[in-house]
Structures are given as structure tokens and as C-alpha cells.
Amino acid sequence: MSVAPKREDYDVVVIGAGPAGLAAAATSAEAGLSTLLLDENIGPGGQVFRAISSTPVTERDQLGADYWIGADLVQSLRAGSAEIIQRATVWSLDRNLDIAVSIGGASAFVKAKRVILSTGALERPFPIPGWTLPGVMTAGAAQIMLKSSALVPDGRTVIAGQGPLLWLLAAQILRLGGRIDRILDTTQRGNYLAALPHAFAFLTSPYFAKGLSMMREVKAKVQLVSGVTELSAEGDGQLAKVSYVAGSKRETIPADLLLLHQGVVPNVNLAMSAGVEHRWDDLQLCWSPVLDASGNSSVAGIAIAGDGAGIGGANAAVVRGRIAARAAIEALAPAAAAKLAPMATLRSDLAKAERGRVFLDTLFRPAPQFRIPSGDTIVCRCEEVTAKDVLDSVAIGATGPNQLKAYRRTGMGPCQGRLCGLTVTELMAQARGKTPQEIGYYRLRAPVKPITLAELAAVPKSEADVKAVVRG
Amino acid sequence: MTRNVDVIVIGGGIHGCSTTLHLCLAGLKPVLIEKDYAGRHASGVNAGGVRQLARHIPEIPLSIRSMGIWEKISDLLDDDCSFESYGQVLVAENEDELAACRARVAELNALGFTHEELIDGAELRRLVPAVAETCPGGVVSRRDGAANPAQTTTAFRRKAEQLGATVREGVAAGNIRHRDGLWRVDVGSESFAAPVLVNAAGAWAGKIASDLGEPVPVETVAPMLMITSRVPHFIDPVVILRGRKLSFKQFKNGTVLIGGGHLATPYQDRNETVLDWKSLATSAQTVFELFPVMRSATIVRAWAGIEAKMKDDIPVFGPSSRHKGLYHQFGFSLHGFQLGPGAGAVMAELIVSGGTQTRVGDLGIDRFYPSTL
Prior knowledge:
The complex is a heterodimer.
Chain A: E1 9-15, H1 19-30, E2 35-38, H2 60-63, H3 65-79, E3 83-85, E4 88-93, E5 98-103, E6 106-117, E7 121-123, E8 136-138, H4 139-149, E9 157-162, H5 164-175, E10 182-185, H6 189-195, H7 199-203, H8 206-219, E11 223-225, E12 228-234, E13 241-246, E14 249-254, E15 257-262, E16 264-266, H9 269-273, E17 278-281, E18 286-289, E19 302-304, H10 313-332, H11 334-337, H12 343-354, H13 357-363, H14 368-371, E20 378-380, E21 385-386, H15 387-395, H16 401-408, H17 421-432, H18 436-439, E22 451-452, H19 453-457, H20 463-471
Parallel strand pairs in A: 1-2, 1-6, 2-3, 6-19, 8-15, 9-10, 9-15, 10-11
Antiparallel strand pairs in A: 4-5, 5-6, 7-16, 12-13, 13-14, 17-18, 20-21
Helix pairs in contact in A: 1-3, 1-10, 4-5, 5-8, 6-13, 10-12, 15-17
Chain B: E1 2-4, E2 7-10, H1 14-25, E3 30-34, H2 42-45, E4 49-50, H3 60-70, H4 73-77, E5 88-92, H5 95-111, E6 117-120, H6 121-127, E7 137-141, E8 145-146, H7 149-162, E9 166-169, E10 173-179, E11 182-187, E12 190-194, E13 196-199, H8 205-211, E14 218-228, E15 238-241, E16 247-250, E17 256-259, E18 263-267, E19 272-274, H9 277-290, E20 298-304, E21 307-310, E22 316-319, E23 326-330, H10 340-353
Parallel strand pairs in B: 1-12, 2-3, 2-13, 3-9, 5-15, 13-23
Antiparallel strand pairs in B: 4-8, 5-7, 6-7, 10-11, 11-12, 14-17, 14-18, 14-20, 14-21, 15-16, 16-17, 18-19, 22-23
Helix pairs in contact in B: 1-7, 1-10, 3-10
């Protein structure tokens, strides 16, 4: 059943119920602020704690202890006064803090004094030859099926890419009895050396021991090929083979399923469409919002917490959510803020949670050939635009992603650039000898997620229109 | 270092780009200065309507001149601009509106214009089969059509550059002054000087005119558009309504563009607009009522471009009434795209030969100030 928001105005509207959103909404409501939490999924948790209230997986070890932390967060939120609406897709946010949200096929408009965006991360595009074939999917998509339905692959399965989540997924699949034939590790050999100076912080972070034991667990059961420098998916209308080069040796193996993953990047669409300033992050190779120490963005009243503020992982997300909420409380109800944990404590919690991140970012910085495709490899799936098409457009005068729209319609399909944006920016930057910052990104527009014409037509009219009708 | 050129054009919209190109064709060396990039604002993001239909009478001669260029746009630009000509149809939703259409066509005919043609319900449904049964007729302009606005504006800029124009994008024209018989403009660390200056700066042109002592009644507006997901092909011509704010166009790929002039709030200094979804909902409702086939389509994107709207809804076009060598080309008031090719050609004629065969006298800035020249 769908429920519309109870009010038109809130002190705080939190968008996204992942770790950051759960923590932000709980903190805000606890301080007595009218708080609305809008989340697109059927239950709270985001990706990290997906299906935390409903997963059919009952053996705690299979998903790992970190997963179940989500249950505590949800519990403390539900104990408070925050209004929580699931299956609520926010499709517009602007600099006046007007929010349009679609719930059960009907749109409602609410206004906030403060908005905390916690829309999390997306998987980085992995545009190799054949990545659009049926049978190739992202590791994240596989993890959604695993968490919400306990579904694991049973055909010939290859996992390719790099990063902590790749290992986590592999471990989760194996624990639930799924099949993995081979893991193709694309981590660049040079990254190990580059990451070394940051190793101390990582060794003393909680990630280290957990990561190491997980990798050991997976390696005991699956053949691992490291140093993969080329990768392609092949097949006639359906994935049949995976071909790769490691060392100087090319190998081709039959496969029914190829899971790709090379890290996650902030999901910037809603923030960018609201006019929040972003900068190119040269370490994480993505766009990150420009934020102050409390998560406040360039748009007054909009704060960003969680991985949408720059990839930091679930523990950091929780603290960032609390910091953003505390800043909102300081602004709207200073008396209540005095009773909360001091900001300094939260900031030191955050520093602790972010420890080791630079090491991970450096080690798992994806190689150029897996970010910047060439030739006939598809860049934009919605409009079937290849790398060569993009370069041809650059040659006749397309200078950035927004100009490219006019030549090739890239980014104008339903995904609004989520699957091609980073690739287009980096490809054009390389072709034009500019930095990604100079090249820029698509200007994003609402609706950030498509809504039906019928739904928009049913929206109550503005006062001006009503008056015009009354006057005849 | 000051570079001497023949003409300085400020503004890289379709008008500035077209004028620059036509100046090149006339053998002059112009410089085009654009603070963002060509087609960044209204020229690149408008509905792309190539429309003679339903125009204000003073701008019809310019529109007809422009139509001739549109029909050979590939010859001019080596780019088809995705121009297609399936006509534009104005739909009357009731008998009163049809009567107004009849009067309008008669008025145009009396003036010697024949591009608008009154149609009955049968012809309306032949042209637009999906339209609601209750609509009794309308007006068609059969040579009209649509083009891709960003592609078109970019093609004008590219061709102008190929023919020798200097193009400066990404830096605003500053310190505009007239000294020692020349117009002088700074562009970053560069300066340009020329006997002629063209003010084609769109939403920013009013301020330039005002700084030069010619303020005009102009405001900045941002008309909204939205586009849908692909739906099966059901309509060829561009459709506009007589009585309600709606325009409607289906592209070859099946997507449908919905416009009609509902306004967003422009934040001109930031190059931003904030959309008014409740007004867009009115457009959606109109489409919902008139085109049942559209009901299940999804809206994938909405936007607004920033542009200048005159109080009297017709552009400021022609020589300054105060300064020798200054020309204005702005204030196209939500219907400047189709005029771009012709306006550039006529502007080049005014600059090069001091006159034109195309009747544009009613569009001059001297409608606000008698010329002191």
C-alpha cells in the first residue's frame, strides 16, 4: 500500500534509506525535528543493508556480521518519530528545496527546510567489448538478487574486475552454495606499489583483517587469475565466452554468466540536477560534490551524506549521516543540538571510519583500458553509441558531454547518463587533451527518474492556473 | 594587443552564428564572442520548431525569407540539421477558435501572405490522425517543420569558422566601448576592434543595449520543454493549439517533445533555471486529453533555456538609433529559432550594403526611440 506524505512541509527531508539516510533521519527525528525519509526500495537498508528487514537469508554468517548492523539502525529509526515512506522515488529536487516524489504511481510535492541527500553510490561503468550482451551483468545486480531472494548463479560463472565489493560478493555467493568458475582480477600491478605509502593506515583499519580473511576464503575455492590487462565478452546474442589477457597470455573460457565490477562512484544525479557543484576527484576518478565539513553543499539547505558525498563505505556513511543531521539540528533547533554528541566526537568517528580509504582507492584505481574504451565498444547503452562514434563527434566539434548530446544523443536516454557519463567525460578528455574537470559532465535534468505522463497530468494545478480558470 | 576585424558579433546563439556566417559569405572577417559555448542557451535547447505559422505580422517577411534558407540548409552548412518538413498545424478545439483561425487567414491573405491555410476537421484528422474527434479544424503551414536546435546552431558556428570567422567561446565580451571610430571589446586578455558591432546576446543583450544608452522593455524568461520515452509513430507535423499553451512534436526515434511556453524561473547569472512542475502538469494534462496514445508514455527529461522576451513580443532587429555601426539582433521572444538563418542573411545585407529587400522596418529599436542618427 502506498502512503502519501502526511504534511506539505518538513524541517528535514532525507532522501535514501541506506546507512547514511537511516542515521540522519533517526538523529533528526530524535531532536524533535519533523522528519521525512523517502526511499525508493521496498524496504530500508540501501544497497549495503538491502532487504535488511525481509531477507530470506537467515544464517548470519552467510552475509557477514557487517550486514546485520543495518538491523540496529533500522530499529532505532523506527523507534523514533520520523515518517518513513518506501517505494518513494524522488524525481525532482531544486534549489528552493521543493521536492517531487512519486509514490505508488501518484506524485506529491513537499518542501523542506533542510534536505539531506543520501542517495549512495552506483557501480562504475565497465565498458569492455561485449558488456551489453545478455549474460553479462554487474556484480551489484547479482548481489541484489542474492540479498533479496537468496538467488545465486548456478551456470558457468566468471567474475571480473577488482575492489572490496567484488571479493565480498564472491564470498557471499560461495557461502550460499553458488558457483564461480574463475575470478579475473584486473587490479593494475603498479597500484600495489603506489598504495604502499598508505598501507599503514589500512593495516590498522577494520577493513584489513576482514578483507584478508574474505580473500583467503574465496581463493581457497576459486581459481584466481591476477594481472588481467585485457577483457572481452563474446557470443552471438548471448554471452558464450570470456576472453582475457594476463601476463602475455590470452585465454578464452566458456561462460554463461559474467559479473563485472570495478568499484562504485557517487550517485550524483539528484544532487547535480538540484544545481549542487561537483568537482572531478582525481583519486576516485569520479564526480564528487563540493561539501564543507558538515556535508553542506553549494546549494543552501542541501547536505549530502554517505557514498554520494564521495565513496567512504558504510561505516563512514553512518557517521556522515549523523553529522549532516546534527548540522541541520544546529540550524533549526539549537537547543536540541546541545543535548547531542558533540560535533568534534562525530568528526573523530568519521576520521576513524575513513581510515584506510586512500589505500583502497589507490590500490583499486581502475586501469585506463577498462574505463576508456575504443573502437566499436558501446559507450552509451540507451542510444547504442560506440567509442568511435564519440571520437568522430569530437573531431567535428563536440567539445563536451552536453554538446555531444546534439551529435549523438548520449545521456539522453532513460538512464540519464548513469551508465555512460563517466566514460563519456574521460573519453572526451583523453581525445581533447583536457582534464575531466575541464570537459565537465552532462547537465542533469528532472525528472531524475522517469514518471508517466498520466502521473504528471494528475498533479494538482498551481494556484495561478486555478485562478485563471475561476476568472474564466 | 588589439586585433582589428570587420565586425564583432556578441552572442553565439543561432542568430549570432548565422550573422557571422553570412558576413563571411559576404567576404568580411568577423569575430564571434560567446561567453559559454555556441548554442548553450535558448538556441541549443528550444523546441526546434521551424515555423512560419501563427507569427506576428511584422516578422512574417523575415520568417518567409528564412524558410527559403531552411529548405536548402544542407547546401549552406554541409549539415542537414535534422531539418524535416511535415508542416505545422494549429488546432482549433472548438468553433469559436476555428472562427478566429478563419479571420486570421483572411487577414493574412489580404496582406498577400498565403502560407497559412484554413483546414476543416477532415483535413485536420488526415494530417493529425491522433487528434481528438471534437476538434473542428485549424490552420496548416505546409512548408513548416522542425530541426535539431543544438545541431543547427553548432553547424552555423562550424561553417562560419571554416569560412574564416574567429570564434571565441568560454569568455564573455567585456568593456564594450566606442573609441576613435571603432567598437572595442575585451575578451579575456585579448581585445578586438571593428567598425561594426552586432548585439546578438540573447538574454544578455538587453543589458548591453542599456549600457550603450538604449534600454528597451525586455525581460529574461525560460520556457519549459519536456520529452517523453519512445512511443509508436503516430504523428508527423508539429502541432500547436489555438487556445491553450501547448506544442507537440514526435521525432523519428519515437520520442515526443512537449512545449508551449509555460515558464520556469531563470537564474541568469548562474546559467540555471528552476522548473515549475505544476505548470508542466497542465501541459501533460492537455496532451493526456487530446492524444490518448500518449497516456502511457513516460516523461524522461524536462528543461528550460534562458532567453529574452520583449514586452511587445517582437524582436529588436536592425541598426541602433543612437550609435553608428551598432546593430541589434535580440529579443526574439520564444520564437527566434526559425528566424535565425534569414535574420543572419538580412543582418549581413544591412551591414554590407546598408539595406535589404526583406521588410524588417517594423522590428527596429527606433520603435522605442526615434533615431538620432
